[in-house]
Amino acid sequence: MILDIPVLSLQEVLTDHLRAPMFDDRSASAAVAAVSDARAREMRLLRWIPPRLLRRLDRGFARSFTICPDTARAIYAIARAVHPATTLETGTYWGYSTAVLAAAARDAGAGMVHSFDLYPRAGAHIPDALRPWIRLHLGLPATEAMPALLAESAPQLFFQDSVHDHDGVLAELQVAVPMLAKEAVVLFHDFSCEGVRQAAVEGLPSYFLAQIDVDDPQQLGIAIAPRRP
Question: Does 128 score more than 70 pLDDT?
């Protein structure tokens, strides 16, 4: 099935749909540069060692791929625009996107990022300076671990980046979305996967859904809850 999902620039998303001021790329670039060491190391290793061999050395390596810098800048800008008190992320991996979300909370002066991952060593490359804005929840599937947090707070931002198949993404949405804040924003990495897109359409029927135009073959999707009077 070919889904008719619009492709918007980051600036269109920020100004037209999030009602945020013009985007200052300098602050986002500074935040991304501060946490880019993990991705640079990953790219160097992948240049010389196949992912299958790297996985023998570290089971958590090469399960996925770290987000591209352009996507990281977009995530930072959206997090600053939403200014969430609570951010929910599934799929910590090395912690690159987790750190970007935490940098947005730090720069805004408030907020906490809760990141979920099965892998016990996930988030190992998060800079120490950003850890005060992060709580890691490791060792359980997100669908099992999220309810305890969701019972205590209603996240304004949800970044789905763990599983990338239709049923897995839909299962996470079914757990998280009913407990999100009224005007929450949901982001999807690996939006190039048809299963992710279809799950977003099915799991967020009242949300405005779009792909953000970023330099990332895995693509970044966004869903914005309807604004209420």
Answer: yes
97: its two tokens: 């996107």
Q: Are strands 157-160 and 185-189 parallel, antiparallel or unpaired?
A: parallel
Q: Six-digit token pair at 80?
A: 């600053």
224 contacts 22 by C-beta, under 8 angstroms = no
Tell me the per-residue pLDDT of 42-70, one tens digit each, with 9 for 90 and over.
Answer: 667 667 776 666 656 565 555 556 788 88
CB 212 within 8 A of CB 222: yes
Higher-pLDDT residue of 227 and 177 is: 177
Is 76:33 a contact under the CB 8 Å cutoff? no
Specify the amino acid at residue 85: A
Q: For residues 97 and 214, is the Cβ–Cβ distance under 8 A?
A: no
Report helix, strand and coil shares of the chain as percent, to nearest 5: 45, 15, 40
